[in-house]
């Protein structure tokens, strides 16, 4: 039985917290991976859970030509799940892009359902410049370089960029809601109803808080949840405060459903954290101290950043020449998992200060 993040004593800053509740895993689960919400980093954590808890994070379905599909959908997804079952894999998980579909979810066995959200304005800006960058969508102009040059010269964002952004906003309105809501339900379903099937919703702007709350709720260890960020674009894309106020207002108005999804997700996370804190205040001897665990986790993450930011170099220094990622396919998933695991085990053993 593994150790979890619950403890009766918090006086040892580096000690692994002793077990108070067993892990709910192994268990089928589905991460409904939304676009530009920190989903790749979260996917890495959940793929790590598959490795640690005898679950199988499935590879993407293929089309009739044997080509990998860029997302999960019911027809090929059902076939893919059946293949894994026939081969005797007991606990299955989906961690790649795909709109939530209750028909596909029904092929899993009593699955847990997770997703992640982000401030809708920041998500739209990030996704727009992800598409319109050098090497972005096929045929798309490099508006990112144009925008960054204008901002570095203290010039306004070119009108060409703003016109294209407005066009993108209209085409991709409420994209987060559309990914999260069940494909088989009326599109007019209220965000509150659309979120009801989800067991846990991560909030990108409060990622560490969400990960710790998730760990405490599901009986996980520091080793389970330690991570190296995937697709870290800090400083590369223009931020919300560099976009004209009228464009921000337009994004907010066009994405009203996403705004409500985000508000509800934050409220859900607040409620979970409040419940953990209240339980600890009533029974501090046996219930976890959320803030103490969060502080320990952030210290662990500081060690991970220091040791594993250049995980490719770390691997070569240790003599590793393959397996940089959990799925070993070169994708930005579970970045530097051997390095992260090495740091987390030393941290749990009290060897890092």
Largest sheet: 5 strands, parallel
The number of helices is 15
Structural class: mainly alpha
**End-to-end Cα distance:** 27 Å
Strand content: 5-15%
Low-confidence stretches: 1-20, 326-333
Strand segment tally: 5
Overall, the morphology is: globular
Biggest sheet strand line-up: 2-3-1-4-5
Q: C-alpha Rg, in Å?
A: 21 Å
Which whole number gives the mean pLDDT?
A: 87
- Helical content band: 40-55%
Write the element-wise H/E pattern from the N-terminal end onward: EHEHEHEHHHHHEHHHHHHH
Oligomer: single chain
Structural account:
- The protein has 353 residues and is mainly α.
- The protein has 15 helices and 5 strands.
- A 5-stranded parallel β-sheet has the order 2-3-1-4-5.
- β2, α2 and β3 form a beta-alpha-beta unit.
- α6 runs parallel beside α11.
Q: Characteristics of this structure?
A:
mainly alpha, five-stranded parallel β-sheet, 353 residues, disordered N terminus
